[in-house]
Amino acid sequence: MQTVQLDSQSVAESILAMLELRGVEVFIAAGTGTDFPPFVEAYARRERLGLAAPRPIVGIHEIPAVAMAHGYAAATGRPAFVMLHTIVGSANGVMGVINAKRARIPMLVASGRSAITERGDRNSRTHVVHWAQEAYDQQAMFREFVDWAYELRRSDQLTDVLERAVVMAKKSPAGPIHLLLPIEVISEPPADLRVSSEPAVQIPTPTVPIRSELERVVQILSGASNPIVITSAAGRREGAVAALVELTEKLALPVYEFSRSYLSFPQDHPLHQGFDPGEVLAAADVVMVIESDVPWIPIRQEPSVDATVIVLDEDPLYRDYPHRGFRSDIALSGDVEATLLALSELLDREMPGLQRVAERYALHNRAHEAADLRAKQVAEDASHELPIEPVWISRCLAECLQPTDIAISEFVLAPDQMNFTEPGTFFDHAHSGGLGWSLGAALGVKLAHPERTVVCCCGDGTYTFGAPVATHHMSALHGLPVLFVIFNNAAWDRTRMAVRGYAPEGYSAERTELPLCELDPTPDYERICEAAGGHGERVEDPSSLPAALERALRVVREEGRQALVNVISSKS
Ligand SMILES: Cc1ncc(C[n+]2csc(CCOP(=O)(O)OP(=O)(O)O)c2C)c(N)n1
Q1: Distance from C-alpha of 411 to C-alpha of 231, rounded to nearest angstrom
Q2: Cα–Cα distance between 212 and 218 in angstroms, integer?
Q3: Which of 96, 173, 203, 368 is the most exposed place for a label (fewest CB within 10 A)?
Q4: Which residues line ligand 1 (CB under 6 A)?
């Protein structure tokens, strides 16, 4: 085993050196406080001596800071380190950790811990907050939503603890972990400066189900007369997209991206059949569910009792979900890309009748083309509507995005109006739905891909949940120009829709403006972006939207400045 010598004066500095050594490139300090001085001093020393460290990012508010770590990891597969301030910064950060957990995002989350002593130590309490910011069990607020939580108790544990932290975040399924860092321990001199140059603990290798199960699945898929594939997040690991294309082409399997969080299948592929199988679900004889926590909504539609449901997932049981009853007649647990490739390989030996596959392919191709035409018509019909229809905003955006541009959407983009084809070009919210994610996530994606255009799309309610003043400030501070597009319907429309479902004949049904749901008048959101040096526009006329988006994109691409288009849009 080869070792390297760390140059460090404190445990905090060793954390930076170790993170750097293990390929963690980003250290996001969210709302620094009195538990951060050891890190500030460590950065000052490393900068002075020219020693490498993860890129320091000032996270001006915990909501965009944690979401930024989320976006960065979604775009790269690599965790960022995000440090929160004692119990209070932690409380603000927990929602982002919940989102990361549900989205299986690797993330290294740490919180400082208030000083223990009242006198006698250089870290002894100096401020009134140091008493009230201590908790009996600070990590309790994270524990349910992380894959591992540990308090660093001694300086000589550091290497082992960090090795374990990185592996526990990156393993499969990936997830956030939490480290509690008492100020006394991170202030200590480092205990051990020699560490192995390679990770001392390796991430377990990707697994593939046993061959007999794969063969059984190949037989079922080959013999199926009406099979379908449903996925929400197969594209979380980008390589799985090509593997899914390969498998589905061999059998002409139609793919539905139900409630997608990632681009899992190229939208222009003839086998892409949209986003909701609808009645097709009940008619299918084989339903293959790939990485979908919620593959259908049972009260709306379910597979037929005679169908075979095959689940392929890193964790088919979704162990962290308390109640979940989706059927799985066969549950393949393992790496999605490797399993899809293994199925494809087996299929080569057992190809079903080519004639049947060709006919099925042609059928789905026709359905795909018809759906495209319908979506186009819907957009055209909406193109003159006032206030502007969300489908028209989506369509206009789709028209001005290049294939490698990246969109982050928080529930708002109409999926069938878009045309994402490349893996890693689209990210939607974790199904935990902790609002405000998309703003910081867009900054994280931009941090990962500074050369690419990144667009953040969200509702006006969501925008406010994302701590926009902090987000725009972070965008300017860290040189991360993003285009923000607000679907501004001056309401919490999701709640309004829920009310319509809850009481379709009720008193609220008589009203257009609903109690507790309306936000009118909304601020001039574009001016918040302008206040941070960005370009802002408000658009009310649907015909002027394409040009406004082009102008804003030009500012982002050519001037390297952020931009915001506040689109006054319709509600349900
Ligand atoms: C942190 C958080 N608080 C509250 C909610 C509940 N919630 C779900 S959707 C929604 C409204 C979102 O409003 P907006 O972004 O304007 O989108 P719209 O529903 O109008 O399309 C709210 C408040 C949530 N998901 N997360």
Answers
A1: 17
A2: 10
A3: 203
A4: 95, 433-435, 458-462, 465, 489, 491-495
